[in-house]
Amino acid sequence: MADKLSEHQIQDKAATLRERLGGTIFGYPIHENNPHSPYAVVVYAAGHYHVYPEAKDISFAALGVKTILEQFQKSGLSVNYTDAVRLVSYEAQVNAPDVTMRRLRDSQADYSTTEAGTELISGKGAVKMAYFGMVDDRNPKCGQLMDQYYKLLASRRYGKTAAAIKQEVRKMNRDQATGWIERTYSKYLKGEDIAILELFRNL
Hints:
With about 200 residues, the protein is of the alpha+beta class. It is built from ten helices and six strands, in the order H-E-E-E-H-H-E-H-H-E-E-H-H-H-H-H. The protein folds into two domains: about 5-120, no CATH class; about 125-200, no CATH class. The two termini are about 25 Å apart.
């Protein structure tokens, strides 16, 4: 791995991203061409770029971004995920041979390509990652996370109990379940990426 970047270099990179993509809270790989690069988390506030402790991968970067955004909101600042957050990966990380990025690739619609190969990742991928972990790896924690998603949908007037929703999903194949997550997320959780990012903590 290349040498670690200095704080000034990390700030300069965040400034470049802000010029290109907007936003005020950034999570991005320190080394663009390294598939296993740690991530920097940087906040632009009051004219300065504040660097937070390095995150070992995108999951921890997402958690750091979530925590910072929540702190802003608790302080009474009017910020939201869509306007403020730029959670970025590059081609090297998107094509990395690890479970987290494989699941993001499988989810297809959970990141969008911008100029120069930058990938902006949405919170929706966390739900799909939990689903893939449940069915592919039989990971009990991912199963518990999906149970929480079912309960959340039941509380949002989905029209079924959490147990009934769980049975509905069990009858689906992977493609059907992926489409179902797309539809339910858009209908019942639109604009709530910051709540869903909590799922990254346990994947």
